[in-house]
Amino acid sequence: MPNGAQALVRTLADAGVEVCFTNPGTSEMHFVAALDDEPRLRAVLTLFEGVATGAADGYARMADRPAATLLHLGPGLGNGLANLHNARRARVPVLNIVGDHATFHAPLDAQLQSDIETVARNVSPGFVRTSRATSDLCRDAMEALAAARARPGQVATLILPADVSWSEGGKTCPPPAAAPVPSAAPETVARIAGLLRRSGPRSALLLGGWALREPALRAAAAVAQASGARLLAETFPARMERGAGLPAVERLAYLAELASVQLEGLAHLVLVDARRPVSFFAYPGRPGDLVPPGCEVDVLCAPEEDAAASLEALVEALGAGAVAPQVAPAWRPGRPRGPLTAEKVCKALGHLLPERAIVVDEAITSGLLLPKMTAGCPRHDLLTLTGGAIGQGLPAAVGAAIACPDRPVLALVGDGSAMYTLQALWTMAREGLDVTVVVFANASYSVLNVELERVGAARIGPKARAQLDLGRPPLDFARLAQGMGVHALRADRAEAFCEALEYALERPGPHLIEARIPESLRGVRRRILPWLLRALPALPAPLARGLKNRLAP
Amino acid sequence: MPNGAQALVRTLADAGVEVCFTNPGTSEMHFVAALDDEPRLRAVLTLFEGVATGAADGYARMADRPAATLLHLGPGLGNGLANLHNARRARVPVLNIVGDHATFHAPLDAQLQSDIETVARNVSPGFVRTSRATSDLCRDAMEALAAARARPGQVATLILPADVSWSEGGKTCPPPAAAPVPSAAPETVARIAGLLRRSGPRSALLLGGWALREPALRAAAAVAQASGARLLAETFPARMERGAGLPAVERLAYLAELASVQLEGLAHLVLVDARRPVSFFAYPGRPGDLVPPGCEVDVLCAPEEDAAASLEALVEALGAGAVAPQVAPAWRPGRPRGPLTAEKVCKALGHLLPERAIVVDEAITSGLLLPKMTAGCPRHDLLTLTGGAIGQGLPAAVGAAIACPDRPVLALVGDGSAMYTLQALWTMAREGLDVTVVVFANASYSVLNVELERVGAARIGPKARAQLDLGRPPLDFARLAQGMGVHALRADRAEAFCEALEYALERPGPHLIEARIPESLRGVRRRILPWLLRALPALPAPLARGLKNRLAP
Q1: A484 lies in a domain?
Q2: Do residue A385 and residue A509 come from a single domain?
Q3: Could you give the CA distance from residue A393 to residue A370 in angstroms, rounded to a whole number?
Q4: N or C: lower Cβ tally within 10 Å for chain A?
Q5: Which of A162, A288, A452 has its CB closest to that of B104?
Q6: Residue A336 included in any domain
Q7: Cβ contact, residue pair A457, B163, below 8 Å
């Protein structure tokens, strides 16, 4: 009879869990030893737990099924917590396995003892279980898997004590049945169809989650076309399908000032697998709820419902089945030239984005022009920073590349963000992943230069500025990448950047390109106005007009 | 009237908090802006929260007073959790400040919202408080400070909502009075003096915490000499003063097999600011409690009591006031030659350790010979991995160097450990810290090769081995260091290592030396025996003899 760990790896593989992102310690050694018994389970070693959890998030976004993690006790879970937070906000399935001391060791309060369950609840509010008996382990794991895979997806945490893992008497368990996903109730569909008919142009659908995948997008675009309603996407989607041939959807802006303009004048906001929009942070004297006064918020379908089916029902209710939805035309920006800037990096990416790319965007302020520059590129998937916990981009790229080995992955990261989980580069090299990392190296926590203004901090002195400065000493990303076995290039002119990107895209990865750019927001001092004005060209024309009018003196 | 943040930084400085280790985000921008109002508070930026918290731990160990941290919301706390766990186990004071959303923003459940208090309780069981009003903020901070500084020290977490920070109406608050520290009750001292008189040679004092500082060490050595009792130190001390001229105390071994031999035959074990010894991990069929059957455990003083005063009272009760305690003689090993090994690195460190060094030891298996090789070196402080959460060494070195700018710091780290919080190198360079980092680069999670055997895992195949292998691709620590602005050297021969170490110690830091060594434990396969036999020369003679007898067939 197998031990607990042996039965567990077999049960996981039987249930279609194909990958485990690991950073194991002593209490996980039986799980590690059992890996050789199960060829269907791939174990991907990471040098830091935040890479393992971020990879599990990226994997789930692209594979639409969970990977497992393997973390070491409470501190290992702590190290993985930030990216599990992002996964929770992405509503993706993750089977988060955390090793623990043997059950009989816990009362001794040894050095590594801590309360794992409590920490786990933070990111796994729906499922945390410590497996207490070897004979129950696989059943516990399958209940965790069922919880993770339910709609909406979630991080389900299984805590695995060492003796439960090493004891004889493991019993495999069949995979859980997939739970049916309901769609919007007919009366809800009828009600929303009615209000869209009445006030179409003063309505908008706010799309999130599964509503940003192709079938739902097409249905949403038909609804918009038939009713005159606008389409908006949540600010930080887990995964958004976009590009030439797909309906283009404008994302709600990160800056509440911009988002308010986008939502202004709406009488109805219909949520489709999306949450009521709130500002990312609070600011003195400004409301956090972005819904304008007088605008009613309605829900077509909640995250536990089927967004595509609900939207298709709405198409039918509106009699829009024959409408051919508007899609983004194929278009690429020209090849940029001259000294490199964040804008030119975005332009070069739009100029060269390959077919079927997966774009992981953690470029923060530097990626401002990215949506515009890539709107007409070949179809691609965009993964964003769902939970705002930075250090997500490189690990998510690892997971996406493992989920889709035949697709090119681009990880676009700020220099500040990249440094949180840079260890992901090593796993990219180890696994030979086709990832091209672009580091927007502006030597600054640039977004905080904006935020420092926005929160209304009165005087900003040199000590405060130094807290946002990454230039002393400068970070040399080419060396950092080479130190982890990743081929690296550097560019400070647009021509060189384009060549580096072409080089990287033509050859199997991983590659890292350090794009040396000026801190474009350095001019932002007393007011946000100049920044907003500079942002105008990046915005869709009606939004830019509205904003310009509002900002005009 | 100042805002909350301005009053807070002033109150912190008034109370003697001189350093804040930071990784701020938007919700902390008012704290950041207030830094320029308070020249007495030094803000040390880190690129990752685990560096900030580990630095606060190292600082507290050397300064004997708390630094503050400044972390960003729940994910920032998560990233800092592992090193706060180590600080908790070190029982050192840390004022852990975690920024939060504005109080009115929290109900909106914005992207970065999470339950910070619950996570914080894991490392701050004694004090977690969310400050709810600007007028109370400084009082809350001083109560947190008082909790942190009590004996034993602890991590006290103050959660600081953005609006509490930015609102007008901050009121400074005077520093808390230092709480008196009681010492052992006279009847306890008399009882323990009696039992040591009766069964001296079959007794041992187990010293931890403050009992490993000079005054307590001298008193303990006098007790040992007068009574015949042995002296032992806890396995992973927060800070141990040692070297020529100080009483030498043998540490309990990490491996339970070795620790059992150290404790064998004892009739009494007297805890002095130390916990009852338990094995680090559990193993199938082995007890976790290391106290041998028939050995009685007594407590001279608990962590909340004064170890030095309690030991001095015991000296008096034993009439040992005139005893001159035995101290370690000055001795250094010779200069090693030939191909570099972990043992030769330890030898070279013993050969060259400078006066008044601070040695941070996270070398795991590679540092096995370090205690022996440095026992007779000039006086130094040793900081170890108190909580077992790896990634502590480099951050703790940052904190120690800031606490003691006139002392050389040596950070001895395994390659696996170094990669958890390598971002610490950047802060070392930025602050110009006199740290010499030695990376024991054996391309392996070597300790896990041992643990894989010890837990009794049956077959160990190539997939399992790959989980412990850091050699594919190789890590190039010299490049990684240079990428963060740290001067780096590399050695694979003992001669080159000695020269590199001399070079680094003669010049202001930081420096990193990559010591390329073979994976010395690669031979350990089926049994622990060969490893134990190899360890024998590192152990004190009586222990080695006892062990050899036990291991003999």
Answers
A1: yes
A2: yes
A3: 15
A4: C
A5: A288
A6: no
A7: no
Number of domains in chain A: 3
Which residue in the block uniquely carries the two structure tokens 């989607």?
A: A237
Tens of pLDDT, residues B174-187: 999 988 999 999 99
**Mean predicted confidence (pLDDT) in A471-481:** 97
Distance from CA of A225 to the nearest CA of B (A): 31
| Residue where one domain finishes, among candidates B166, B199, B216 | B166
Which among B22, B104, B282 is the nearest to A162, CB-wise?
B282
**CB-based contact, B35 to chain A, within 8 Å:** yes
In this structure, the answer to whether residues B141 and B193 fall within a common structural domain is no
Q: Which of B278, B452, B483 sits opposite A32 (nearest CB)?
A: B452
In total, the C-beta contacts within 8 angstroms joining chain A to chain B are 327
Task: Name the residue among A508, A504, A471, A505 with its Cα closest to residue A488.
Answer: A504
Q: Are A192 and A229 in contact (CB under 8 A)?
A: no
Residue A465 CB contacts under 8 Å (≥ 6 apart), including other chains = none
For A188-214, the DSSP string reads HHHHHHHHHHHHGGGEEEEE-GGGGSH
Chain B residue numbers with beta carbons less than 8 Å from the beta carbon of A386 are: 111
What is the side-by-side order of every strand in the sheet holding A487-491? A240-242, A380-384, A358-362, A409-414, A435-441, A511-516, A487-491
User: Looking at the structure, do residues B41 and B190 belong to the same domain, yes or no?
Assistant: no
CATH code for the domain of B147? 3.40.50.970
Q: Which of B75, B421, B389 is nearest to A421 (CA)?
A: B421
pLDDT (tens digit per residue) in B137-172: 999 999 999 999 999 999 999 999 999 999 999 999
**CA pair distance A243, A330, nearest whole angstrom:** 8
Alpha-carbon separation of residue A128 from A91, A156, B183 (angstroms):
16, 6, 43
Count CB neighbours of A199 within 10 A: 16
Q: Which domain holds residue B57?
A: 4-166
Token digits of residue A423: 């260890």
Q: Is A475 on the interface with B (CB under 8 A)?
A: yes
**Mutation test of the interface with chain B: which of A42, A419, A467, A470, choosing the one with the most B Cβ atoms within 10 A?**
A467
Contact A467 B163 (CB under 8 A): no
Give per-residue burial for A32-53: e unless 16+ CB within 10 Å, then b. bbbbbbbeebbbbbbbbbbbbb
pLDDT average per 10 residues of sequence, chain B (553 residues): 96 98 95 95 98 98 98 98 98 98 94 95 97 98 98 97 97 94 97 95 97 98 97 98 97 89 95 96 86 96 98 97 93 98 96 98 92 97 97 98 98 97 98 98 84 68 91 96 98 98 96 91 44 56 55 40
Check residue A524 and give its pLDDT: 38
On whether both B139 and B191 belong to a single domain, the answer is no
Q: Are B430 and A75 an interchain contact pair (Cβ–Cβ within 8 Å)? A: no
Q: Do B36 and A461 touch (CB under 8 A)?
A: yes
- Phi, psi (rounded to 5 degrees) for A378: -55, 155
The answer on B146 and B190 residing in a single domain is no
Could you tell me if B430 and B309 lie in one domain?
A: no
Q: What integer pLDDT is reported at residue B523 of this predicted model?
A: 39
Write the pLDDT tens digit of every residue in A394-422: 999 999 999 999 999 999 999 999 999 99
CA closest to B461 among chain A residues: A36
Does A82 sit within 8 Å of B76, measured CB to CB?
Answer: yes
Measured between beta carbons, which residues in chain A are less than 8 angstroms from residue B423? 419-420, 422
Q: Please give the distance of CA B140 from its chain centroid, rounded to a whole number.
A: 28
E-assigned strands of B351-479?
358-362, 380-384, 409-414, 435-441
> What ipTM goes with this model?
0.94
Which of the 8 DSSP states describes residue B168? Answer: B
CB contact (8 A) between residue A457 and residue B89: no
**Contact at 8 Å (CB) between B252 and B540?**
no
